[in-house]
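WARN retry 2 of 3 for item q-0093 after timeout on previous attempt; input resubmitted unchanged.
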Amino acid sequence: MDVVARLKEKDEDALRMLMDAHGDRLLRTAYLLLKDLQAAEEAVQDTFVQAYRKIGQLEDPAKLGSWLLRIALNRCRMKQRTWSWRHIFPSPRMELDAEPGDPGPEESLLLELRGVQVHEAIGRLDYKYREVITLFYYQELSVAEIAEQLQTNENTIKARLARGRRLLKAELEADEEGWP
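OK item q-0093 returned
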């Protein structure tokens, strides 16, 4: 029996399987959008709770991943709109995943610094640009898929991507000027 059918029968083991299969991807996306690990974890947890409750609304089981992503994006938007006392304190940083291979120590350090620099630059973009850049580059969705997820015109997505890239480039160039 597939996961969706088991979820419709309120099988909690199926929920655990769903969380194992999609949790990391949704958490990375939520963290990139919200810039706060705790808020991202809450958004993803809310996503799974809502998916478990509303699984009957999923019309095409083949689109389960896309459906979960849409719920997560909506949760991130809701969290983005609501202010919290957590914004007063610095947020914990998510650890970078190590790339396979054997780069030398200098190369590893430079790659890590560049990754942090790109991540921080993305985090400084307005939410609407951060959202499309995250979906395009990190989730590897096409412009059409992003437009469907965000329920927005494809030309709007293209414009946001173009503007987001320009802003990101400017942020990265400004960061490089600040290096000794």
